[in-house]
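Module 6 notes. Inverse folding takes a fixed backbone as the condition and produces residue identities as the prediction. Think of it as a translation problem where the source language is geometry and the target language is the twenty amino acids. Below is one complete input and output pair. Work through it position by position during the lab.
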């Protein structure tokens, strides 16, 4: 898998990504898209979202904007018709009956290229059960070497059910199309101490999918690698200067902006899962 080529394509093609995301992270998602070389739009009004989604290179649907599900369906169907990839972030999907129901409605009405969430969210979609801790992964679902096989099984099951590439974010990232599965071991714990790191990653997946149509697994892996490597760069600065989470957030976006294809290729720790 050539991560350098993937990042180069994003920078060359500057894909327009429409993000229907939540109010907590909308600014971060827009800025990380600009940092990686994409172009963000945040159109979510049902009177224009179908037109915008068809014109964009990719659409991102984030369940944190639970009040925008109708727009996600309108935009998603328009993007599907136009052949544009749609990325779904099922924020808190297992937490409430409302989120479980709206997630199911989205999966029934929109064809997603990539579904990215934490392990609790992916298990909720795959097995239709409640779980999670707010928008965070539950302790029981945290990805470790011991729980890795169960996480892979859930991701593969959801990929088989939906036809989407499934990306599970955690200390070890799991990415699969149901047949081929990759593990990524980049990132740092501080990424979970800021609001929006997952939403930013989903936005990046929209950019990479938009720049690499027809290659959702490679695109999702490259986006996850870019975010993880940028997190490591930002963490090194935090430790060197004794700063906190607010500065880390800014340094994370800066690291995406300054990330080079050669740096990404050298620092990405990716392996094919054989289990």
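Target side of the pair, the amino acids:
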């Amino acid at each position: 898998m050539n991560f350098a080529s993937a990042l180069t394509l994003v920078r060359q093609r500057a894909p327009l990504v429409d993000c229907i995301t939540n109010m907590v992270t909308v600014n971060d998602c827009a800025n990380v898209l600009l940092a990686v070389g994409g172009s963000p739009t945040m159109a979510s009004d049902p009177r224009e979202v179908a037109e915008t989604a068809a014109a964009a290179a990719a659409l991102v649907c984030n369940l944190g904007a639970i009040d925008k599900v109708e727009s996600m369906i309108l935009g998603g169907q328009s993007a599907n018709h136009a052949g544009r990839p749609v990325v779904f972030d099922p924020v808190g999907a297992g937490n409430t009956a409302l989120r479980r129901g709206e997630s199911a409605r989205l999966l029934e009405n929109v064809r997603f290229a990539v579904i990215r969430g934490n392990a609790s969210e992916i298990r909720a979609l795959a097995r239709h059960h409640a779980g999670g801790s707010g928008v965070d992964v539950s302790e029981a679902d945290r990805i470790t070497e011991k729980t890795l096989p169960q996480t892979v099984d859930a991701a593969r099951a959801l990929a088989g059910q939906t036809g989407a590439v499934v990306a599970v974010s955690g200390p070890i990232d799991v990415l699969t199309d149901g047949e081929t599965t990759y593990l990524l071991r980049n990132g740092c714990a501080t990424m979970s101490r800021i609001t929006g790191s997952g939403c930013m990653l989903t936005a990046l997946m929209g950019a990479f999918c938009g720049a690499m149509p027809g290659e959702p697994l490679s695109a999702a892996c490259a986006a996850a690698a870019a975010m993880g490597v940028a997190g490591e760069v930002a963490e090194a600065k935090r430790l060197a200067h004794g700063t906190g989470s607010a500065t880390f957030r800014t340094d994370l976006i800066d690291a995406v902006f300054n990330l080079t294809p050669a740096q990404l290729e050298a620092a990405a720790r990716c392996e094919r899962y054989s289990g």
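Reference fact for the lab report: The chain has one domain: 3-272.
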